[in-house]
Design brief:
Number of strands: 10
Strand content: 25-35%
Distance between the termini: 71 Å
Radius of gyration: 21 Å
Structural class: alpha+beta
Length: 228
């Protein structure tokens, strides 16, 4: 048997094995939702229950570019065990542990470039004993002042830069906040008028939330969407 035939048979066997794993009743993978571009948005790997009524399943949510945004286990519709969140570039955004849908125990979050930013413990729903770090590893204050990034002379962002930043804004609140799309469109447009993209692009999710809060509270940007 030639090497090429052996390779072809090996690929065929692997493909059959993957299909068996994905579609047996005890390991069913289903696509729950897709993006407008046809890319998977939400996928379940069901280990208990059915597609109509999943009970125990591993959950994936994807960015429109196909990169995983978050993954973890659901049991009885509650976050359970370790959950991981990622940036669009594939780097880890945060890691936390859940019990009955609530964060418990160790929690860590990271900068988009990979350095650790927050290290703490969740106790009774609150992040306690938390330490925050700059990218160089030195500790920083929790209420970080990023107002120095605000500028009145900003090079216009490209449509691609705005679109990518809007996705980052939207992912954590999509399906949770009714006006999520309107809010993210508004707050990214406002941010683009006040902050250079090269300064904004490497901010962590936590830092971006501080910028958005500043723009709403100090500049009144998009406040009407939150207040309603």
């Amino acid at each position: 048997m030639t090497h090429q035939i052996k390779t072809s048979l090996s690929i065929l066997l692997i493909s059959i094995l993957i299909l068996i794993i994905c579609f047996t009743s005890n390991g069913q993978r289903i696509i729950v939702e897709t993006w407008n571009n046809g890319q998977e948005k939400v996928t379940f790997d069901i280990t208990k229950g059915t597609g109509e009524k999943p009970i125990d399943y591993y959950y994936f949510k994807f960015y429109p570019n196909g990169q995983v945004y978050k993954e973890g286990n659901y049991i009885d519709e509650k976050y359970t065990g370790e959950w991981k969140f990622y940036y669009q570039n594939g780097n880890t955004k945060s890691i936390g542990n859940y019990r009955r849908g609530n964060l418990v125990g160790k929690f860590k979050s990271y900068y988009i470039t990979g350095e650790i930013e927050q290290d703490g413990m969740y106790q009774v729903g609150q992040l306690a004993n938390v330490k925050l770090y700059n990218r160089d590893g030195t500790e920083k204050e929790r209420n970080e002042d990023l107002s120095y990034l605000i500028s009145e002379k900003v090079t216009p962002w490209t449509s691609t830069q705005k679109a990518r930043s809007k996705v980052d804004c939207l992912m954590p609140i999509d399906g949770v906040f009714e006006k999520a799309d309107d809010y993210c469109t508004c707050i990214i447009d406002s941010t683009a008028k006040h902050i250079k993209y090269e300064n904004f692009r490497y901010l962590s999710e936590y830092q971006r939330s501080l910028i958005f809060k500043y723009l709403m509270e100090q500049r009144g940007c998009c406040r009407h969407l939150i207040e309603k």
